[in-house]
Each structure stands twice: as structure tokens, then as C-alpha cells.
Amino acid sequence: MSMIEIKNVSKWYGDFQVLTDCTTDVKKGEVVVVCGPSGSGKSTLIKTVNALEPFQKGDIIVDGISVGDPKTDLPKLRARIGMVFQNFELFPHLSITENLTIAQQRVLGRSKDEAMQKGMHYLDRVGLKAQANKFPGQLSGGQQQRVAIARALAMDPIAMLFDEPTSALDPEMVNEVLDVMVELAHEGMTMMCVTHEMGFARKVANRVIFMDRGAIVEDCEKEEFFGNIDARSERARQFLSKILAH
Amino acid sequence: MNYNWDWNIFFKSTGIGSEIYLDWFVSGLGWTIAVALMAWIIALLLGSVLGVMRTLPGKVLPAIATAYVELFRNVPLLVQLFMWYFVVPDYLPEPLQIWFKQDLNPATSAYISVVVCLALFTAARVCEQVRTGIQALPRGQSAAALAVGFSIGQTYRHVLLPQAFRIIIPPLTSEFLNIFKNSSVASLIGLMELLAQTKQTAEFSANIFEAFTLATVIYFVLNMSLMTLMSLVEKKVRIPGMMGGAK
Ligand SMILES: Nc1ncnc2c1ncn2[C@@H]1O[C@H](COP(=O)(O)OP(=O)(O)OP(=O)(O)O)[C@@H](O)[C@H]1O
Ligand SMILES: [Mg+2]
Question: B73 is in which domain, residue-wise?
Fold first, then answer.
């Protein structure tokens, strides 16, 4: 069953086309990694899934609901999709606890106790229960990103979107975040991840998408993507050789 | 110069009833505070709404807010005051006009004019501060707020404004102080606030220097207290772990 279906999506900024006829889908429980050079449109594509970026052509269906349909209740749709950002984007003026509970209460209408219980459960899962009363600015980058993942999970999302979740982190903190993501993948979470962590892709991805200049150039099974390098496009091979070099 | 300073003047009778000159200063200070506080509350509310409007997507609402700011920021304050006091009332509907010009006592109608004037003038300046504060936040903050399912309204209320207001406490403080200083324009339309009482004391008693010295001291102490108050507020809302905050 398709959880996220992207159908012929195109998007322009004025005359500049950022996305060109992108089509792919993410099935329930599937982990899809999106990679590609800087400026290729990865962030834009992943943000169209929860309508943070509008698009002019095509459509996206999330769990049967059309994102492009003007009648769709976007806040409601977004509340069902978790998103994790490159720069964490925790709410710095709220404590960790409040970060975890505010949307549960204000958007899902959960009681304070219920929201608290859920929030603490996920905070514990990312190993940060002891930090509950701190503020985001008092945590390391890796810790903040784990809280951000917990914040998204506390909403009981049907799928998770990640936009380069580890690329703003100091190298020694990358793994603590990847570990949480790997665990999520093993539990069957539907995930669409923009990342250049090919180790992560090798370990848990079902499929790998390679984008270049706004288009999806490669979209294949992980084994095929990494195992049959010769069948890859020139651009994808160049890209892979660059990021696998170190 | 041979001037006989007489600091006892403030305790001498004004010759009107049993009032001493100090009473005039106290009542003047009362009016100054009443004008400034009321105008500030309105300016803060209206300015925040306008500031938010300037940052909204779309064209119409930002354009309205921008036009407001340009208009109220570029016309001199005194011109605005005379408009509100002498011109606008003539264009009010008949019953309101009679009420304003005849039923109200002169102090009240002057009070209303000056409050409206200072509130609308200061709102334009507050608007710009609020807009700057919102725009200073990382763009990812509103994306993150929307991504958890917040509406635009909730995004502003729970995520953008609480952060923006913290950033702009220092410039808002100086607007707050300005409104107290600007309230002295009220003396030009006959409202007996602090400056008007000072001038009156100077004229009645001929102790010009004492009168203006006392007024200066009062304005100074008032400003210092407000600054202290605002820095307490700033400390109170400081975010732990943020720049300048407690770790
Ligand atoms: N608001 C905007 N207006 C105009 N062009 C934009 C805007 N946002 C992004 N772009 C352009 O769209 C293209 C795709 O951007 P996007 O952020 O999706 O790339 P990306 O693949 O995520 O890159 P990176 O790896 O650097 O994050 C880039 O060329 C970028 O300059
Ligand atoms: Mg990006």
C-alpha cells in the first residue's frame, strides 16, 4: 500500500524550475533515501509532501489524501506526518517537555497528562529523559535532534520525513541520531530521508532516489543502487564517488 | 547672574484654594502617566497586529500595514495632534461631535485626542519593531511550527511572537520611554500634564529654574524606573541556554 505517492510533480520559482516531473512512491513501512548534489531539489521535494512547499503541477497523495487539493485541511494533514529538519528547529523558548507536548495538546487536543505521558515515553526512547526540564539551547546538537525526532513521534505520525538530519551535526554526534533512525526503520516506520549518510542507506533503506537539477534521475532498490554501479547514470556515479571517497 | 534659588517654593501656596505648587506637579505627573500608559497599551496591541500583518503571505494585508506605517511615521507628531484635536472632531457624525465638543469636559476631550494621537503614532513604530523581530527568526521556525500541524495563527501565537517579543524588548523599551516624553505635546492643547503644570508654576511663582529643575528630575526618575522595570521583565523572560541566558 502506498503511503506517499508523488505523481508528476513540477514546481517553479518564477522562471526557474526547481522540480521537474517528479514521480515516486513510498509504501507503508518502507524507508526511502533521497540523495543528490546541493541545489538538486531534495529539500524542496520532501517539503512538498507535507505542503510546506506548494507545487504547481502534479499531485501528491498521502494516505489517500491529496496534498494539492485546495480543500484539504493542511494543518490536519501535516499533524499526521512527522518532519525532522537539518537545524533541528526545536522551539527555543519552550522547555524540552513543552516542545514535546505543545502540538499534542493544541493540535491533537490531547490532555496535558496524556501528552506528557506520550512525550516522556518518546524522550526516554531517544535516551534523554534526564533532560526533560532543560531548554533546547542547553542541549548539544545531537541531543536536540533526538528531541526533535521524539517531538515528531509523539504525534503518532503515519510517516516521517527527514531533511538532512545529521548534516548540521559535529561528526561525533552523527551516530547517536542515526542510531535512533535505524531503530525507527527496524520498527517499520515509513520514512523518507534526504541524507548523504550512505552507511545509513545501506543498512536500512529499501530504495534510493538520486536527484539532479530538480529531476529524479535514479529510483531503485538499494541492492541495485549500490551493487550495480555500472548501470547508474553518469551523474549518480560521479556523485557517489565523491561522497563515498571519504 | 544673580538668581535667588528658593527650593521651598514647591511647598508654598499657589493662591488657588489650599493647593501648594507640589500638588500641581503631582497632578501633572498623574496626567502624564495616564496619557502615556493608555497610549502605550493601545500602541502595543495595534502595533503588534500591524507588525504581524507585514509578515503575512499575500499582498493586501502587508500593503495596508506598510501604508499605515509610512503615513504615521512621516507626519510630524504635532501635526498629527492638531489633526486629532482640531480637525477630526469636525468630521465626526453629529451626535459624536456634540458629545466630544460640548458634553465632555475640556480635559477629557484633550486626553482622548492626545491618547489617540500618541497611540497611533507609536503603533507605527511598534509595528516596525515587531516585524523586524519576526523576520530575525530562523525561517525554519515557522516551517517547524506548521509541520507539527499548527495553523498560521497558532504558529504566530506559540512560536513566532514569543521569540520575536523577547528579541525586541530593548527597542520596545525605548519606544515606551518615548511615549512618556512625547506625552508633553499634550500641554499644547491645554491638558495639564507635567510640562503644562511646570510652565504654569513658572508663570505663577516666577521661580522658573526651580520649576524646570523639578520637572527634569521627575522625567529623569520616571525614565530610570521604567528602564529598570523593563530590564526586570527582560531578565524574567530570558530563555535558558540562549545568548545571554542562564545556562
Ligand atoms: N525561495 C526560493 N526562491 C528561488 N529559488 C529557490 C528558493 N528555494 C530554493 N531555491 C532553489 O531551488 C533549488 C533547489 O533547492 P533545494 O533546497 O531543494 O536543494 P537541495 O537539494 O535540498 O540542496 P542542499 O543539498 O543544498 O540542501 C536550488 O537551486 C535553490 O537555489
Ligand atoms: Mg536541502
Answer: 7-237
